[in-house]
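Dock flavin mononucleotide; give full complex structure.
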Amino acid sequence: MSLYQVLQPLLFRLDGETSHDAALRALDLAHKLHLTRPATPLTGRPVRVMGIDFPNPVGLAAGLDKNGAHIDALASFGFGFLEIGTVTPRPQPGNPRPRLFRLPAARAVINRMGFNNAGVDALVANVGRSRHRGVLGINIGKNFDTPIEQAADDYVACLRKVYPLASYVAANVSSPNTKNLRELQQGDALDRLLGALMNEREALAAIHGRRVPIAVKLAPDLEEAAIAAAAEAFVRHRVDGIIATNTTIARDGVAGLRHAEETGGLSGAPVKEKANQVLARLHAHLGGRIPLIGVGGILSAADAREKLAAGASLVQVYSGLVYRGPALVEELVAALR
Ligand SMILES: Cc1cc2nc3c(=O)[nH]c(=O)nc-3n(C[C@H](O)[C@H](O)[C@H](O)COP(=O)(O)O)c2cc1C
């Protein structure tokens, strides 16, 4: 029996966020006491994606370590890469609690955290203190009170600060918990944002002598036409990667369950089909021109294989860790070898 199997029933007695905080504190402590495995990636199938060498294709999805405060402890799970954030230029408290709910019967989670984070300067300091030398993605967003018309300024401000520390940067335009954020996935707003980010990246590449790849993270709730238009914009702006997907505002697969009607984004098993469909559509439009990172509803090796079959080069997990613990990472790395 693994440590996680012992702890899970205790954690599941707590409310969602208390459990999340307790699990991270326990993990940090276990890491300090050298009770975790070494903070090195598990040996798996190495892949080169976005010009980066990944020791294995299994990553931690954004949102679990928003401030990069647990990097070394999380690295002990053996991930091929970690994505920290979403971080915003200024610190912000996020939405009032409760804002994180488990739906165990559906192996799902609903959250409306609202980008609670300590701000980009705190994240940069945390990364500076970590010993991790593996692949590190940094996921950036906008403050809740920055008008949507000025959103690009927030993304550019974050990009500048995280640039020297990031293996890649992910622009999150798909959280359902920041008002109007998902408008940035379409039309002129998307064009403006991508233009600003790519411009700034050219300037930063010249300063730092290193071209950091930029990926964009999409929602699972996009219509076919919006996916096609976004894919074209990504090609036009030479986006380096696409992360599909974030949480869904739909409630398919959870009707009648406790918490099912809570406002927020649904993740875990019920988002898998939608996420896979977006992935497959992107793959159909792009035909390999931009690499895809598949995330949403991976709770088993079979789920991860479906992501690769739909066109993903890498996968990420979040909710699966809540239900399966760190053993999931080992299982996925072994299965994708
Ligand atoms: C509690 C929670 C917080 C999240 N926060 C973020 C976030 O800050 N930024 C982001 O891009 N995605 C965030 N996500 C979305 C996940 O990264 C992932 O895209 C989504 O949960 C689907 O994957 P899963 O089914 O493996 O959880 C969050 C998810 C959860 C459950």
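Observed: The chain has a mean pLDDT of 97.
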